[in-house]
Please model this.
Amino acid sequence: MQPISEDPELLRAFLVESHELLQGLDHDLVKLESSPTDHELLNQAFRALHTIKGTASFLKLEPIVRVGHSAEDVLSGIRQGRLQFTSRIMDALLAARDQLGSMLADLHAGGLKKYALDDLLNELERVQSGEASPYQIENEDHGSAHAKDVPSISSSEAAIVSNLKQKDAAVPSDATAVQSMRVDVRKLDELINLIGELVLERNRLLQLAKEISSGRAPVQSSDSPLLHCALRLSFITEELQAAGLRTRMVPMETVFAKFPRMVRDLAHSLGKEVELVVRGQETEIDKTMVELVNDPLVHLVRNSLDHGLELPDVREQASKPRRGTISLQAEHEGDHVLIRITDDGAGINHDRVLRKAVEKGVVSQEHAERLSRKEINELIFLPGFSTVENPTDISGRGVGMDVVHSNLRKINGSIELDSTPGAGTIVTLRVPLTLAILPVLLVRVAAEVYALPLRSVEQTCRFDPGDAHLVEDQEVIWMGGQAFPLLRLQTLFLHQPRKTPTAEQKIVMLEAGERRLALLVDGLLGQESTVVAPLAPYLDCCPGIAGTTVDGDGRVRLVIDPSGLLAVATAVGQAVAQ
Amino acid sequence: MKPGFDGLNRGSNNRHSPDDDASKQLVSFRVGDEEFALEILRVQEIIRHQRLTRVPNCPSFVEGVINLRGRVIPVIALRKRFGMEHKTREGDTRIVVLELGDMVVGIIVESVPEVLRVPIKAIAEPPRIIESQRDYVSGVAKLPDRLLILLDVDRVLAPAKSAPA
Model:
């Protein structure tokens, strides 16, 4: 263990700052590759390294200083025009950045270790002397001829390059991101103001309570001061909750930051040419969502790179530009954040998907022929589904998509896929702005009360038993000239026999992704905004339930997930049919 | 002050008792005709039986969920978990709230739980007779007047993998 400064506060501050600087460095270095003469970027990258090196020196973190210093020299050379930015220099700098990230991670975990830095430092030295590299780290084949001629130099370079490629998308510093965040001061001011109002109202409440309990209060009329106070408290609490949640919102940039580097590295190792376009980085998302959205995004981008985008030659033959494009886009839509991943690759091979689905017994042959393109796309989200014959270590093990799908559903999000063979694929993730509060519609079924997410409720209407019909063992209801599946919670959830229709029964039309369904309930109980908690992992057994909430009496109420409900009904229907 | 949860903590781990090396502190209760016991360290609290909210299409031994001070936790019917005959609830049922890593789960027991201290020497390997519960049993405690079946909390609460009942 290296000796470090005694002050944990200083160390913590150093880690937070350096982590941010390294993330920015990642970003800047990748950008520099495509615009090597951008002086602003160069200066920014140089400053980042310089700052890290400086503080590390003060804290006597020698290995960090050594790497930082060497990398700084290289950047300095470029700034002064002595060196040209080449692929080789880029790889060396990225390797240095990764080494720094890994050292920071070790520091965070307890302390620096002993490092074998000679290879890296020598390489950084060599690139400074402007030696022409015999080993071109490019994807075209003409580099390889040279590589065979010069054994000793290329072996250590190759080591660095392969080391670099192995890091893949596992950029070390990310995993140890310190648990703190930046918050706009205005949001904090808002919070403090509301708390001030809360305090005033609480004082009023205390006073009223004392008056009432000592008998000094005036007769309670319907216009009572107590009611007013309670209403006002309720209002302030709501505002406070919203403002509090707002402080936890961070821009999507936090999630998108790692992608330029990841895409670059992956593209290089796959031999593909890719341009990454990122839009909507300022779109805000709840910090807790960041972790939930991160893995699916990484998985989806990897998918695009690995399976979606074709090799440059193949693209050329298909009259597409050699360089493929992947775009990441985020925007707000109502109370959700929409994240779109688009690629202009080969799209999903519908025939292969169908074949696999029939093979796995997911759909019968006849049913398969009747599936719409959208429905075929959705087959991909089923467990164990992978059409890659030889799964690479990057993706394709068949555990990805269904996990993404179910994780998103657990947080009331959704994922949709649209693909055109030959043209590309668009994957759209919908994620609620915040996990916490959900406006719901309360409904009664037999003796139970369920909560339906209000955003999924299209309309409610009276139930006329004459509208219900049986079509191929599935009950449907005709409305406005269309047939919708009619679901009875009584059967699905409570396993009770159907009862005679009553006049109070209502139909609630729900949206389930692209489809709509009609839910038969025994009564509507009004709307509420409530805190929803996802189901404990232990209860991962019912796809129709999105989570739980607690009612005014303290009893647990189930929140329904319309898409899941449809899935349950379909499964039940299939079971009945068989 | 509880020791950290080790997911691989199976079977006998007698050295982690909160007290001296010679005895363990256990919580015992009845389910059906038998008496079981758990290490007290895993027991978060014991509450009166409450009205559960059923969660549809769950394995049959998951009775439902309850609200524990704002946290919704699943509750398991040990009787069903052990494959015993169903019986209607009688007087003294309680819910023993256990912690399983960062999960909190309740189990329904059929007597008011007792806390007792059992000498380590009285604890033995489970006899082969108790076949059906073999998986969840970590040992047997021979007390002067009765026999306690020691449950392995992690195994008893192993996440519901089976298909809906």
Observations:
- Residues 78-81 of chain B form the longest helix (4 residues).
- Chain B has one domain: 14-156.
- The first strand of chain B starts at residue 23 and ends at 31.
- The helical segments of chain B are 78-81, 153-156.
